[in-house]
């Protein structure tokens, strides 16, 4: 029985991994660190983004740069690329950091510019050894690839550099640059290949591998997704996520129990307290289960799945999925599960009263 349950979990994990896109932290990090394809994969990405070849790269996936002290903030960089340029060859040494980001939190999105400022500072500080002149400071380019519009101007590419406010045309090269690549951007689109790459990264399917370069990338992606070791690694990551959701459910149960106890205590009767506690525990379990279902529906709705497809994927009746689906539409295109859960939960309470 246990072996059968384990195999069912593995099948579910393989399905999730098969549906994963390149904006997902796990798949992207796995691709760039995969021994046989990582370097080639990253070189292809950079070649399409910048329109030139990159020959010398040292790739570090999921790099952590700690704070100067235990009480100072550190940085986790998804992919850090350091060209291995020989001294005196005449080339500028540039560190590239690629950061796919699918955050649904509005506060996190608003904080993107300050987050980039912090990343630049961390990368710059570690790229200049003690005693060296500032002209030896490496250039730093951070590339953010996002499925949401970070500045609301519908541009595919936002190039950010420091400049003089009074004289914007005055040369001011401090070696720091940031690229925000918006996968759905339509303005200022001059590079068709870049647009095709971004669409493929957001929806990583063979259908979206519309040119030879993307078909090469897709072969790499398929190879990595089919690797049994990758499946095991994702299963571990998935179980950790489930543990996090279970903790959220436990908290909901605890809150429900507290509410139930208060209800029982107010009646001044032991029977009322017991009934209140049972009702609170039931409410807590129900809330936790509902939140998990809402989160799954929102995730699949972001992938443009219909209510029928979602019901089939989750093995639920359409009557169960339909109200969550309708509530999620009010929070498109972010489909943040928190406000959707609050709306559905509030509607359920209204119907029961």
What is the fold's blueprint, element by element?
Blueprint: H1 2-19, H2 25-33, H3 38-50, E1 58-65, E2 75-82, E3 94-100, H4 106-110, H5 112-126, E4 139-146, E5 157-160, E6 176-182, H6 192-202, H7 212-225, H8 228-267, H9 270-302, H10 307-314, H11 318-329, H12 337-352
Parallel strand pairs: 3-4, 4-6
Antiparallel strand pairs: 1-2, 2-3, 5-6
What are its keywords?
globular, 2 domains, 6-stranded mixed β-sheet, 6 strands, alpha/beta, 12% strand, 353 residues
Tell me the number of helical segments per DSSP (H or I, 4 or more residues long): 12
**Cα distance spanning the termini:** 42 Å
Record field, number of beta strands: 6
- What spatial order of strands do you see in the largest sheet? 1-2-3-4-6-5
Supply the number of structural domains: 2
Radius of gyration: 24 Å
Mean pLDDT over the residues: 78
Mass-distribution shape = globular
The H/E string reads HHHEEEHHEEEHHHHHHH
Strand content: 5-15%
Sheet with most strands: 6 strands, mixed
Low-confidence stretches: 64-78, 84-90
Structural class by SSE content: alpha/beta
Q: What percentage of residues falls in helices of 4 or more residues?
A: 40-55%
Give an overview of the whole structure.
It is a single chain. The chain is α/β, with parallel strands linked by helices. It folds into 2 domains: 2-226; 247-352, no CATH class. Helix content is 55%, strand content 12%. It has 12 helices and 6 strands. The protein has helices at residues 2-19, 25-33, 38-50, 106-110, 112-126, 192-202, 212-225, 228-267, 270-302, 307-314, 318-329, 337-352, and strands at 58-65, 75-82, 94-100, 139-146, 157-160, 176-182. A 6-stranded mixed β-sheet has the order 1-2-3-4-6-5, sandwiched between helices. Helix 8 packs antiparallel against helix 9, helix 9 packs across helix 11 (318-329) and helix 9 (270-302) packs across helix 12 (337-352). Residues 64-78 and 84-90 have low confidence and may be disordered.
């Amino acid at each position: 029985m246990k072996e059968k349950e384990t195999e069912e979990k593995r099948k579910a994990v393989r399905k999730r991994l098969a549906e994963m896109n390149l904006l997902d932290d796990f798949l992207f990090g796995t691709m760039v660190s995969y021994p046989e394809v990582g370097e080639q994969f990253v070189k292809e990405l950079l070649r399409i983004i910048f329109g030139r070849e990159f020959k010398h790269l040292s790739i570090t996936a999921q790099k952590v740069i700690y704070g100067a002290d235990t009480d100072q903030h550190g940085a986790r960089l998804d992919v850090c690329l350091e060209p291995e340029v020989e001294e005196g060859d005449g080339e500028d040494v540039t560190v590239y950091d690629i950061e796919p980001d699918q955050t649904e939190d509005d506060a996190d999105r608003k904080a993107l510019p300050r987050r980039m400022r912090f990343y630049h500072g961390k990368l710059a500080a570690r790229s200049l050894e003690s005693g060296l002149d500032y002209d030896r400071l490496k250039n730093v380019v951070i590339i953010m690839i996002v499925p949401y519009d970070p500045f609301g101007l519908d541009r595919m590419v936002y190039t950010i550099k420091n400049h003089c406010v009074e004289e914007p045309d005055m040369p001011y090269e401090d070696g720091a640059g940031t690229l925000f690549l918006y996968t759905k951007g339509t303005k200022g689109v001059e590079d068709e290949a870049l647009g095709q790459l971004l669409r493929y990264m957001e929806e990583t399917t063979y259908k979206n591998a519309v040119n030879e370069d993307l078909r090469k990338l897709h072969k790499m992606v398929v190879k990595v997704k089919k690797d049994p070791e990758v499946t095991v690694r994702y299963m571990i990551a998935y179980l950790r996520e489930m543990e996090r959701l279970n903790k959220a459910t436990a908290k909901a149960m605890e809150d429900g129990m507290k509410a139930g106890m208060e209800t029982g205590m107010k009646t001044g009767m032991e029977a009322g307290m017991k009934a209140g506690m049972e009702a609170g525990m039931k409410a807590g379990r129900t809330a936790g289960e509902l939140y998990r279902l809402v989160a799954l529906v929102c995730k699949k709705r972001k992938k443009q799945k219909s209510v029928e497809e979602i019901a089939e994927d989750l093995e639920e009746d359409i009557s169960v999925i339909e109200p969550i689906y309708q509530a999620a539409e009010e929070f498109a295109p972010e489909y943040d599960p928190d406000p959707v859960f609050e709306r559905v939960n509030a509607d359920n309470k209204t119907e029961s009263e």
